[in-house]
């Protein structure tokens, strides 16, 4: 008997090759370069706005002719005072990750350098004066590290041709306060010039005083500023108004001598001392400085915030201004420099005028960059997401190098 054999219906062959081909085509799909090109253009526009347009706008508001009262402003001697740049180093944030510290340095350096270059291109001061704390950990460095940071500082603040530049006022971050080593003091003077000196600018005598060393108990440390102060009046022109430049502010009574409305902090000026710092020079030393120099005007730094008070001395009064820090890392919201215009040829009892010039807020740009980075990362192909980090860093570096 014949048995019928059932023929099985062949099962369909799975589309293995089609699936593989589909997956392969999916993986090798080229990125959307047009979209990325648009993102790059947006990055350029965004960076240009925060690195050029905003700073230019801020400095244009400080143009000399906006606030100078002189009838012949072209004859004025114009000065920019920069306080506490305190460039970030390994001592600034010792507990911070190295990669974060690296980018903090780059960003802070870029901010200082950009503003400095724009000040010179837009305001064109005759003289630039630094009021100390050029470095942060300068008092601790050995010679090799100090030289490296000195070169870095010079790159951030390159000297300008045919313009005077004064950098010899030491701060406590440069030489220390309670502990000052003679070697550190000598090194600073060798590279930046005499720490105690007087200079005639615009029919005024500027007295540069190392009040930190003058406050030190060691006779060898305080000898030079002490002798300078004793002999000063035998040398300087008695006909010119005097302007004192020092790092640490002179003693004051904060509840009486109030800083004024331009100070960010609401609290009175602090009277404190701590590890390698003191917020004011001692009372007796301050009285000696005032009664010897008899200044019409005093500029100091150190506090990082603005303070404008009046100091009295035997036979006169002086206006003392504590200049704001110019650094974005100075612990204040609005860094600034101080502008000073000297009357050189007009017969007037007003021989100077001064104005604070605000620098742009660095963090607005930073927050905008981060927000735009997160936003664009959603739309950019994952295979090239890293380019969305590399390109803005490259563009920022180009802007830093070409200013």
TrEMBL record:
Pfam families associated with the record: Metallophos (PF00149)
Annotated Gene3D superfamilies: 3.60.21.10
A cellular component term, taken from the record's GO annotations: membrane
GO function term, MF aspect, one: hydrolase activity
UniProtKB keywords: Cell cycle, Cell division, Membrane, Transmembrane, Transmembrane helix
InterPro entries reported for this sequence: Calcineurin-like_PHP, Metallo-depent_PP-like, PGAP5/Cdc1/Ted1
Membrane topology category: Multi-pass membrane protein
Segments forming domain Calcineurin-like phosphoesterase: 78-306
Keyword Membrane appears in the UniProt entry: yes
Gene Ontology biological-process entries: cell division; GPI anchor biosynthetic process
TM segment ranges: 33-50, 362-380, 385-402
Record's keyword annotation contains Cell cycle: yes
Places the protein is found: Membrane
Principal subcellular localization: membrane
Matching PANTHER family: METALLO PHOSPHOESTERASE RELATED, METALLOPHOSPHOESTERASE, ISOFORM E
Protein name: Cell division control protein CDC1 orthologue, putative
Annotated organism of origin: Candida dubliniensis (strain CD36 / ATCC MYA-646 / CBS 7987 / NCPF 3949 / NRRL Y-17841) (Yeast)
